[in-house]
Amino acid sequence: MLPFGGEAMDEEQLEILRDFITESTEALETVEPLLVELEQHPGDAIDEQTLAAIFRFFHSMKGTASFLELQHVVRVTHVAESLLDLVRKGSTPLTPTHVDLLCETVDVVRILLQCVETTHTDATCDPDRVEDLAKRLDAAVNKAINTIPEPGAAKAPSSFLVLDAWEATEEDKAGSMFANLISPEMVDKFRIESEEHLESVEEALMGLDVGTPDMELIEVAFRGMHSIKGNAGLFGFTALSKLAHSMETTLDELRAKTLTISSDVVDGLLKANDQIRVELRKATNPEPEQPQVAANDAEPGKAPPPKAEHGEAQRAGSIRVDTEKLDELMDLVGELIIAETTVTRNPDLEGLHFENFQKAALQLNRLTRRLQNIAMAVRMVPIASTFRKMLRLVRDVSSKQHKKVDLIIDGEHTEVDKTVVELISDPLVHMIRNAVDHGLESPADRLAVGKPENGTVWLTATHEGQEVWITIRDNGRGLNTERIRAKALEKGLIDPEKEYKPEEIHRMIFAPGFSTAEQVTDLSGRGVGMDVALRNIESMNGRVEIESRPGEGTIFTLRIPLTLAIIEGMLLKVGDSHYTIPLLSIREHVRAQLKDLVMLPDGTEMFKIREKLFPVVRLHEVHNIKPKAHNIDEGILILVQDGPQTLCVLVDEVVGQRQTVIKPVPDYLKGVRGVAGCSILHNGEISLILDVEGLAKHRAAAA
Fold it and tell me: pTM for this structure?
């Protein structure tokens, strides 16, 4: 194989590198919240399993990075691993400073991985920051070591491995980060290369003269053992990697002359080299050869036991799929739904009745729906990884603000479309950061009003019909309605002569650049960045609802469709134009009567339904098209709701309920008011998907 790094890598190496980046990035998202959780249980209450999981992550990443020749990743993960090892062994308690350093290690590794993704090496990736962090980690390790009580004469002067006590532990058998991707051919290459390294190490050791040791021979032995260690880590042969690591450490001590070379040391190294050769054979040939007689003795007609697959592949119950392929699958399913509608509702069939065709169409419809459900289910992922990122965020913000904050997560296993997971992260960051920064009071202020010193933020996710509801709730001071109103007046966002409901005032915080913060800090005030959060949510056809009570706290509810690609909609018609309204937005439709139409003094049309008045939107006027129903009693009113907005939309005709594949609005239709997207009908025409909130804004602006 070619050496890793740079432009010379072949496709197989690039694939390994890409898999390493993907696996490591995902693992970082898991490790980061574990670190924060670990800090919450200091001292004797520390969770040993969590600590061991974090240690294994750094250990595994270091070994794989070493194989891939990512020296900066190796540098920081190695020191982080050393620090965790001291904590794991009880030599030092885990302190907030340690957690800060380890969290920073996660940040730096994440940056290095992003750099490696584009350059295939980390050699040029912010070396100063890497070295600065490594030195601070080194200092923390040395400080921890210096505080360890002297164990007395029992301590060995060297880390030289005692082979007689060697035994692989369960942790040693943790396996590679991507064992499923390792082929038998790769294992065979590893075995051949390792045997060559062992030969050169043995030759170098045999050439050592105890009286005048040749440092070049020690270097040769060290490099050979270093390669075996790194490669073994990649392949998941952690027992072998650990054994090689111990021998490498002893050779390193000889290089640094902190260990004096002697006959006993050389004998021990040769013995270790032999032991590694044995371990290599075990690792690369796990299945003992079956004697031929065993096969002959098998009972006639009885099948031999199934042969075990290599590595971890046998236990794999899932596979990794490129997200682009999932997107393509969903697009094809969408096209299939359109094609199915085109066939089964073809205008050429109007008025005809073919019994066999109807049966076939029904079967096709059933299979299409099943395929759609499966394609959607494949794209569904738990929202846990996004939620658990917020633990770090709350820790950092509360630390900067000198507040005590508990983040309670509920419903993290709720599954949502993968696109939702990708898009929801930024809005959550803005909302939770503002909840901690401005929503929650300082500890002194909370105590002064009789609240617990610790503030609490609840982050929950639940399925509600065809939506997922994500709620961010805090028990802080609540939104200051009067201050928001004053700021909105100052910015000219509201009419000073008009009365507004509290929830309408509260939504002003989503206006771009809106902030009521008295002091500018490095953290945003409530409202700064909230406009971006709202845009992200609206881009998913979602909505945000706010509920706030003075002194009790604020609740943000994000209502997001389970899937962004296909919705259930009601197909409508105005003149020759088709429209679709998402079924979830429709409350009811009524045949209008003139006696229920009320005209306000400002000319606004309102329609009365069960003694409540709702504003009327005539679609043909909004989009300047010729309708069939000019008078309100000639058409149908669709009562729609989006958050606090409720409208009556006048249309000519209700065609019926349809599965609707959402498509972006074509360029020539961009700018059409109150439209969130479009879909293609069975006859090739376009149906505009209405945006209720957009229609409400248009009506308010036109009033």
Answer: 0.62
